[in-house]
What does this fold into?
Amino acid sequence: MKTIKNPLYFVLSTLVLLSLSSCEPKALTEDDVFVQETELDALLADENPEGYDIYTLNDFLDRYMTEKGNFWSDTSQYRERATNGNGFYLFSVDTLPTYGRGIYIRGRITTDDYEGNFYKSMVIQQIVGGKQQNLRISVDLGSSHGMYQLGQEIIIRCNGLSVGRYSNQPQLCVPSYNNNIYAMNASQKVGWAPGRIPGSVFRRNTKMIGLPDRSKLQYDTLSLGQLFTEIPRKPSIDATGMDQVRKLDGRLVVLKNVSFSGKYQDGNNIVNCVVGHPDSVGGANVFAPSTQNIGYPQGRLLCDIMDANPTTSSTTIMCSNSEYAKFAYFYLPGANKTGITGCRDYEGTVTGILGWYQDKASDLTASGLDGYEWSVTPRGIGITEFGIKDVVMYYHGDTSDPWTPKEYDPNDK
Amino acid sequence: MLLGLGLTISAVAQTTLRGQVVDAGTGAPITGAKVLLSNQNIATTTNAAGEFQLLYLEATDEEVIVEADGYVGTIELVLLEENRTLDMPAIRLQQDIAKQTQDEILLNLTEEEMNDDEGRSQAQASASSATTDVFNSTTSFAWSTARYRNRGYASAGSETYYIEGLNFNSAERGQFNYSAMGGLNDASRYKDVLNPMEATSFTFGDLGQSTNYMMGASRYAQGWKVGVAGTNRNYKARINATYASGVLPNGWSFIGQLAYRFSPYVDNKGIIGEGIKYYSLGYFFSAEKQWQNGNRLRLLTFGAPTERGQNAAVTQEVYDLTGSINYNPYWGYQNGKVRNSRIVKSFDPTVIAAYDLNIDEWQKIKFALGYHYSWYSNSALNYFNAPDPRPDYYRNLPSAMWDGQIGNLYYETSVDQLYRADGSAYGYGLFIGEDMNGNAMGTAFPGADGNLVGPSVNAEQYNTLVRLWQNRDNKTTQIDWNNLYAANYANNANNPNGAARYFIERRHNDIQEAMASVNYQNTKYDHLRMTLGLEGKFSQGIHYKTVDDLLGANQWIDIDAFADRDIKELATNSGFTQADIANIRKNDIRDGYDNVIKTTDRRFGYDYRINMGNMKAWFQNEWTFHEVDLFYALQLNFNSMQRTSNMYNGRAWYLTTLAQLNDAKYGTDTYWQYLGHKALNDLANGVNTAPGNLLVGEAHYFLDPAFKLGLTYKINGRNRLKLNALAETRAPYARDAYVSQRVHDRVVNTIYTHDNAKSLKDFYAASEKVASADLTYEFNYPIVRGRVTGFFTQTWNGTELNGYYDDEARTFVNQAMTGIDKRYMGIEAALSVKLGTYFTLTGAASVGDYRYTSNATAITSAENGMPMTQDQATQDLIFETVDKVLLKGVRLSTGPQANASLKLSFFHPKMWFADVTVSYHDWNYLSVAPSRRMQGLYTGHRLDGTAVNGWFGDEYANAMATTDDLPLVQPTMDADGNVNWQNAQLDQNGMPVLQYPYSIMTMQENLAATNPLNRFLIDASVGKLIYLPNRQQLSINLSVTNLTNNTHFKTGGYQQARLPRAVRQGEKDYHNSVITANAWKYPSKYYYAWGVNFFLSVTYKF
It folds into this structure.
């Protein structure tokens, strides 16, 4: 019996001992995964033996974004095609030093891609002196907002990255050769341009500061009239004007007292939306009919509720939406299978990201500006459980009678 | 003692041989040793006392071949005299500790390859070999590293595994689950292994080998055995202890074994098993009672609860970047410790009772009952509305920067071939070198990874990514657990009731089986052995998901992510309300199902069972004559399968409702592709769908006959010719029968044809037909022995199921392929020569040709129930597309098809063992993706007439042209779907030759290393057995595999199913994608043989 016992004791005690080591690592806590404000300095100091600088977003642009960009010395690649000939360019890429002092920017994310109106891009907001500063970030991460969520403050190490403009919109980026020969105005776009930061590089360069806090986002609530007293609807084509629009791009606004006019821009004309299948009718009375995959944003004209006859000359702005948004084929507020006659009955607010987008170099002339370079891009209309409801409308302003989103139905004959 | 055999040998004068087989070192009797008279082809096995007796023999010179598991066999010459009994002196066998170690390594290797329940795994090595066969005993271990498969057969459907006469192949998948015996080298020691199609005593058998493990306690010598082993494989150490009582005076014998294999998490990057933990505790207990009349009762149980991490095949780019063939993308650091996202948990507790009844001297009957429950689950990261967390996701690799930067040969103006400094063309495609105006953009640059990269790729970013990979940056090359937790915590703050962005789910694929068998043998008649077998088995596959870890999230909301995304399209379908649409994305639409999953015990996603019944009846007659042996056997095999579900899936409801809505329009069962008909478990027929009710699907029944025969012509005592043949039909396995079994009840069309059979042809519409034959010449001289076998097998009408993400439909699709024909033919040969006293030289070779001999018909449908395309004429939505898969001529990816090895063995009577084996392997082919060989890709139209968006000839007029640049004439297709390729030149597989780089997407890659020297593998082992006083012994064995550390040896791989599609801007419909020139966007993934690895074991017996 003794012989049996000894090996058994040996085996069993070894088993017990070894089994103890089979556990998974302990779960991570919030403190483990978010950087706290108090520990930030130490972290950055540790990361940057040569020191570091945290720039405000505007200072960052001022310091590093040049008109022509420094990335490509051969101007034939893009510059001459996308300039107004007076030294202003739609596209630029400035590379940032890889080594040396750390270059940081920080801000709170104002965008959300859950309803599909932002794709592989985000906007961060920084409040300086009570005012917004904003910057777009182009990142090659699908569903990036699942990780970098609305209200999340982040700090980004920009060394080795670039800052540039795509269609005159400033953004943190990397240089990328745009080979889309099918794009609108392709002859001006094909070539080196701001491209998406590889996802793994962005993740590595970015720290999340604390939990997201949407309450800390600043929304500037304005009527269209107030908006265009603060920003130039048609800026001057000079250094001052360009600097102004480039730094106002990305601003988070709440446009109050607005209605969808039921109109959209067709060329240089403002025309009524029509009834039709959004798959094939570009002027359909929904948020974003198909562009046949050209992919440019679809504008739907917003006007002040007091504007009886919105035109190119009145105080209006485009509501910009992607055909890939989940709500793309939803009727505009008040629109239905019969048309757009109900649109003006719905009044309320549209929240979104203010954008300044110029598609071709001829827009960089005073005569080229048509007034619709400015747009507002809502993050959602609230058709999904956790989507952002940025379009809030009521029947004649009656808060007891809200607008309910309704999707286009081909059976609505 | 011999009288104890219970036989009277003096009553009738007869020629008899008897003797005892013992361990040469300890003198202990060896139970279960095989004793074969070579000339008369009569065999027996030794009893618990190591004794044997053979009666009614012919008086002649005989060779007595004695073999036992774990021992070196021997041949003794005897002279049998008429009506005399010859008592042989004790036959002493030397232990073969090298073979014992190799068996253990092989068992573990095979278990580890049983990697997945749904994805890919490489071909498994066979873990058992016929020890009496010089070819199999030589190759089973030596060629296992290369994943050699005997005759090219896949494990499922060819090899049959029995334990004590009970069938242990999974009824659902056809495979044997080695993890049930993980580490139990003693439990699996004794086995009968029969070569393909030979006569077997325990089953009818199949195309491949048949193995019966025998676990009776009386086979084991009395005493303790304890051992330790160290290795650098996926586990690092093993300890085990076995105690056997031997046969006690009361006839009982007992044995128990415990084996523990383990490895803590390994975080050293680049070594074998990186990111893997391994814990497995195997147990085996057996009790056996023997009566004087020879009747025996055996009760046994075994199992091995195991928890182990997994690794994955990756692309060559990743191997090159990390500089290691051991890179594993499944793990990352959490709190500074390694965590693997893929953890397998398995436990197969098994109980068996077997009773052998000797009716009389000539008749035996064996009964066996068994039950086992197999818990098998593996974990995986899931994510929802968040970035793909896989570090090796293609967008995270430097090559993702090529996307869009590779020109089209005939379409783009800005195309420039890249050249190396030496002027040779660069293999990685045609990077854009000119802008739209034809201006040169600059020069290509040598990337930090050594690749020459085109001027349209940003050098700094490319090199930055390369360096992150090369330096094995933790956030780049491993799972970033911190970010996954952060995403969930952030989500909790923003949407406290929202679904987890990331979580680990556990996919359960359990199976429970109850088995019974009766085996009757009769040797009453001269020259004839009759065997009759009855086998019954009920199996239930149990499939569901649970949450393993929410990674800090509050909950998971159980909806189908793809259906959720495509909700817009659903709305455009007629007759569905918004409430309906909301339901469709649910995985259970019944009231009372709470789709908020907060705990790890709730089932979600799917929860279904497949009930399978199997009954086999077979008989076999074996005739033995002086010059000729003959056997024939017949089997009837009944199978049934039926799916039941505990969840009422929204997509199943949707498809069935659509079918009902459209019945009036098209007629029931007429237009599969329009209706997705019979999608559901007969819900349309009034099944009670109330919560808690099991939804019972349609049952399917199959009856398949099989016949085999064998003829042996004994040229003389040392030379013989054998001919074996088999013909059978086989029902499809359940895993291949259901089109989308997680969602609905729909089976492949051939089964519906079978169910509604109006003729015999219809009845066998779903069954695979098999015909096989082999011819063997074998010789056996004292110095030289060996055999040569030629074999030919043809199968027809096989069924396979694939699932993959389809970039045209932009969703996960299931693809059921039917009508698959395959051919296996080849030669295998082995020769063993004794070189003096100490050395033996053994050579083995196998050259085969295993390939598809037909194209297949594929039905493809979206798992989320979305339409695949639209009828261009009627605008009807089409839910299933039918097309041909151009497989004819493609080689099967079941391991290398050309193999050879030379082994030199050394054995010294002072119990030193050593051997060295050099093996060569070639013709090992990549598993092709059917999605890349769909006929519609080459013609623009599928077999069903629907148009394919973005076929090869669509975007680039000359994409499919002859190599001499004849202009393409559009292929035409007749009513049967046969295509006239016209001017196209066909390759050896009958595939149209496409212009570079498209041919890369369709050609079949030979995985053999470019440098022929790297196709060799060298193994070696050395061992010593030390006999100690009082029958104690100590054995030490070191086995080293891949001695030269060949890190260029690919063992397998597969093409990714995804095609490099892009939506060209300006197209009308986003479905109108085109195939881009970046053929490397989704490159193949590979498995490599491990580099040098060792297994050192020390065993002490007392």
